[in-house]
Each structure stands twice: as structure tokens, then as C-alpha cells.
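Here is one chain, start to finish.
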Amino acid sequence: VRLQMLKNQINPHFLFNTLNMIAGTAQIEDADTTEKMITALGRLFRYNLKSSDSVMPLERELKVVQDYMYLQKMRFGQRLTFTCDCHPDTLELLVPSFALQPLVENAIYHGMEFMDGDGEITLKVWKEEEDLYFSVRDNGLGMTAEQVESLFSDSIHVTSKKGSGIGVKNVNERIKLYFGEEYGLMIHSEPDEGTEITIHLPAVPYSRILTEGGGL
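Its structure:
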């Protein structure tokens, strides 16, 4: 098992190093946009390779989302608008690593990839007493109750295989594993009305983990 784990690390590290080389070449050639895109993708890979911890401060997760959305906006252009409304006092609170990016990814692949009009995705983060909430909302095609249920039954994307492979079920199960069964996510969606995914977590500050020197 250890040998297989080491083998699985080879390709990601090779790809990350190759991206750095290509970014350097783009800089030499004054290809500024290409350099920025490759650098953003490289940061995503770096975070993936180094995020062995089960939870991360929200601020780091938001940077991952911002890099991901930069790449998607380069793909969709003016067709895609992304808004992030995050209260400053939530930035040091803990979230499972790679919990937000898959939900934003889901909004694109399930919500707007096949839309004719412009897509709007809004990420909102707020705190209520001892609870932390996230809302990822899109104005996309929406889903039926059966499609919503399928997101919880499969760990990969249902209508598209182009994504990261980290699905809603994966995020929901990790939240419950780290924080307890009373936490998790909910999906509200209607066909042609868009989708909203809400995450409920305890408001655990990163400083508490550093002070106590332990896990959750």
C-alpha cells in the first residue's frame, strides 16, 4: 500500500514541476495571460499536494476558489460572473480542505455549462453565534429532486466527468466525519430556477487547534 501511495505521488509532482517550467517559458516569451493561467493552476496543484491536513483555515480555501474561478473565467469570458461575500471574522475558521471548490465546480458543470445565457455564481460566508454557514448559488439550469439525490449517491459528477472528481457526497461525508452528524450540506434546486448549496459547520477557529495542539 505504501509503495502504491508513493507511485500515485509521481504523476502529480511531475505535472506540478512541468507547469512551473511552462510558466517560466511563458514569462520569458512575455505571454502574460498564459503565465497567469499556468501559475493559478500550479497553485491549485501545490495546495492539493501539500494539503494533507483534514481541515484548513477558510482564508486558504478561498484562495483555491479564486484561482479556480480565474481559470474558469478565462474559459467562459464575460459569460461567467463570480461574486464572493465573506465576512472578515470568518477567515480564520476551519473548513475541510477542498470543501468549497468542488461546490463551485458543481455550479459550473451542472448549472451553466449548457446554458445559452450568462452564468452567475455567488459564494457567501457568514457566522451566526457558534455556527458557520456557506452558500453557493447559481442561476443555472437547476435540477430535479432525482438529480439532487444522485449527487448524494455518487462521489463523482453525474452529468460531467470533466471536474475534479470530488463530488457533493464526498464533501458532505467529510464534514460529518470531522465535525459530527448534525453538520453537513443541503441543496435547494428547481429546474430552470438555479441551485443553492448551503453548508453548515461549527465555528472552530484555527487558533484553537494551534493552542490545543490536537485535532477536532
